[in-house]
Amino acid sequence: MRALAAGLATISCAIAQAQDTTENTLEQVTISAERDGDQSRKQVEAERAATPGGVTVVEGEGLRLRNVTSLTDMLRYVPGVWAASGSTGDSSFLSIRGSNLDATNYDGNGVKLLIDGLPVTAADGSNHNRDVDPLSMRRAIVARGANALTYGASTLGGAINFITPTARDGAPSEAVINGGSHGQRQARFTVGGVAGNFDALVTAEAKRSDGFRDHQRQERQGLYANAGLQLGEALSTRFYLTSIDNDQQLPGTLTRAQFNANPRAAQAAAVAGNYRLNVRTLRVANRTVWDIDADSSLTAGISFEKQKLYHPIVYAPPFFSLLIDTTLRNLGTTLRYQRRAGDHDFLAGLNYGRTSVKGGNYSYVTGGPQTINTGVDNNADNVELFVVDRWKFAPQWTAVYGAQMVSGSREIRNTNVATGAVRNPKADFDSINPRIGVIRELSPTAQLFANVSRLYEAPTLYELDDDVRGNNSTLDAMRGVVLEVGTRGSHMFDRHRVHWDTAVYYGRLNGEILSRDDPNAPGTSLSTNVGKTLHAGVEALVGASLAMDGAGAHRLEPLVNITLNQFEFKNDSSYRNNRLPAAPRYTIKGEVLYRHASGIFFGPTFDVVGRRFADFSNTYTVDSYSLWGLRAGYTTPQWEVYAELRNASNKKYVSYFSVRDIAAANAAILTPGEPRSLYMGARLKF
Fold this sequence. Notes:
Elements: H1 2-18, E1 30-31, H2 39-49, E2 55-59, H3 60-63, H4 71-74, E3 81-84, E4 93-96, E5 112-115, E6 118-119, E7 139-144, E8 158-163, E9 174-180, E10 184-195, E11 198-209, E12 218-230, E13 235-248, H5 256-261, H6 268-272, E14 278-293, E15 296-316, E16 320-341, E17 344-364, E18 370-394, E19 397-411, E20 414-416, E21 422-423, E22 426-443, E23 446-457, H7 461-465, E24 478-493, E25 496-510, E26 513-517, E27 525-529, E28 532-547, E29 554-569, E30 586-596, E31 600-609, E32 612-613, E33 621-622, E34 625-635, E35 639-646, E36 654-657, E37 670-672, E38 677-685
Parallel strand pairs: 1-2, 5-8
Antiparallel strand pairs: 2-7, 3-4, 5-6, 7-8, 9-10, 9-38, 10-11, 11-12, 12-13, 13-14, 14-15, 15-16, 16-17, 17-18, 18-19, 18-20, 19-22, 20-21, 22-23, 23-24, 24-25, 25-28, 26-27, 28-29, 29-30, 30-31, 31-34, 32-33, 34-35, 35-38, 36-37
């Protein structure tokens, strides 16, 4: 608990600073190169300021000044997040507040992903093979843990809402190119315009990378489009289209000896079996907003997504091989009503989602026949009804209280083709999850907040399918309670500005769903409910802009993201009080940039990541590591250029890994991290 005590001390110091602040309005803590001041931004600021817990906003403008190819890059300066990449160019292992501490990251559950408030995450809570492009957003809102209630998310890690740029909110037409090490090259072209009540914006992209490991090549093409129509002063509607064709090779995992000898090598089975992750995605959506009057609005939306997956993943003939060939269809709807009345700001929402996964699991010979073993026909639906009231009951005090009702079903229907036998686990999951919090406005630019909330997450279809019992039994949902306190804000003194976003949380879970790699079929997992677990941590993002001269033309801008984790079993019959695997005990990511008023910037970056365990028994340790790099660039109103050097010392390190019950010393579970790499990019706005 020393980590929690240190976090409280940090918060106390920040509050003491904030109480001296007497000017300006509450300013958003964002990662951004510029502030656009549009109406969407104001709504985001108001939403964040009215949430009594950890919420971070990432601005898309700032992402174009560094190499961003995945969620790992995008979430670099979001506290409370552990994101790691290494297997492919786009894929990321994503965990927020200890969610998704799974064996293979196969279904990527624990965080609800949305685009403009409409779900990308499937109805069962999985993010299997989701393609969300950070560079195709205007900004992203990361609501950590139970702070995602306003999106209706029933997930341990919370939600990330990606907001799409439009021609009407000032998104520029632009050309973006970048490239560098490991054969990376990418080009994007965006064009848009406004004609009376109609506007449209279209982005086309093409990307290719050879990868820093053998058998890691990626080719991707994408189209992102939206068109809006003002139907009157109070009514507007917008249509969205996304099409992505993504082919990538998977290099597989290595033993520790193989990693030490050559981290750039691919797993022999991955090459022999031609492991791949080929996904074709088509998504259409609509969002309509009716501003009923000055104090109330109604928003309705619907989205439909179809994904075709071709995924050879296990190859050990003649004993066992696995190729997944399925089609996922995902329907999502949302309805939100918001009304302000006196000191109350009321929100009611309804989400409904339905997902089907159909296809089969095949055995195969590379370049030869494919034989279906199991017919797959899995279905899930989910309803989330949520209400929130923000009551300003006294000057500088706001109470935030509400509840969420969740009702969903999951059904697995796997047919053994050879025998006709059907495995059919199915279950319904229902819960009511209350939340209460308070916000104290310490000054116009700083807040103190606290909340206590119930946590709930039902199992995904993949977790039910991989139940360790292997029969028609079903897993239970995870349940728990979390307490959180924190502070955020900014403080101006002379020509200097400091800003902070800190939180401490302490949660207990019952029946957490954990899975470990199946030793009889590497690459697949076995899932089970465990007893009591603890999820606690400290999250802090602290930065400054310090004037180095009287005119403020020369500035020094340090930024550091510190996350301390305490994830562990509590008096478990098998694992006692062992630490949960996968997530490091601490991460520190930061930079110190010099900026000149002319638009020049440069400075070092650094990463410090603590050790991790790769098994529940805590017998296999993955070492800590430290990296450093450099960033530089030049910006003008019309064009920008940047260069980024990563892992300058070319250190060998493990990015992420599979989890075992007891990992043998020669287990092939490690995914190497990126070696020394140099990237450059340019952007032209017109």
